Amino acid sequence: MNGLAADDAPQPPKVLNTPLEIASNLRLLMESHDPLIISFHERSQRFQSYLVEVDRDTGQIGLDEMIPRDGERYLAAGESFRVEGFHDGVRIAWECTTPMTVIDTDEQRLYRGPMPEEVVYHQRRNAFRAALKLTQLVDIEIGGDKLKFPLTGKLLDISATGCKLRFDGDVSERMQLGQVYERFVAKLPFGAMTAPVELRYLHFEERFNTTFAGVRFHNMSGLVQRQVERFVYQLQREARRFDKDDDF
Questions:
Q1: pTM to 2 decimals?
Q2: What secondary structure, in 3-state letters, does the chain show?
Q3: Partner of 65 for a Cys bridge, out of 109, 140, 151, 217, CB 3.0 to 4.6 A?
């Protein structure tokens, strides 16, 4: 268990300031279609977007239309904002202090502006992210003051810092990025765990009529942390045993 905790130790953040480093990391976010969280200074609401252009030659980037669309109003008014994305446990964040242009074409609506001069690269975890087998998906429920009715779904994977969830149908209108939901319950094999979670990712996949969400554990108690670590450790052990069986 101590080994697992050591693997999860956060690394100190690095500041990238060469165009090559910045462009290659932004391209990672773009090619992986990693969601971005946009927050305007002195505003509590969070917005979601994606990188759709990274052009090192022109020194320009393009952000996809914001969800919800209200954020565009602040951007068009020239308000500065912070952009934050996660790729394989690495936090990639930067400040946009230069106004961006709203581009509206038949194909898409996007916001174009200069590439950031500095990007914070922060390896938050090396945690083993344990995926659950489809036959063993854990039932979850998420609720709190900000939800009229609790939502029920399935746990897809889990690490010491958060987890990925699946809901049937489109629940994206009922949830808000950056929101903390006080009551997240996962029915683990050895008993239910309850903790507050913060919504970091939300995407409705129309082809499957399924909403995928990513949450980060928020102010976990020591008891819940031990439950999560125990479950991750158990899945890790099963995965290693499965890999060993595969060798024969």
A1: 0.54
A2: CHHHHHHCCCCCCEEECCHHHHHHHHHHHHHCCCCEEEEECCCCCEEEECEEEEECCCCEEEEECCECCCHHHHHHCCCCEEEEEEECCEEEEEEECCCCEEEECCCCEEEEEECCCCEEEEECCCCCCEECCHHHCEEEEEECCCCCCCEEEEEEEECCCEEEEEEECCCHHHCCCCCEEEEEEEEECCEEEEEEEEEEEEEEEHHHCEEEEEEEECCCCHHHHHHHHHHHHHHHHHHHHHHHHHCC
A3: 109
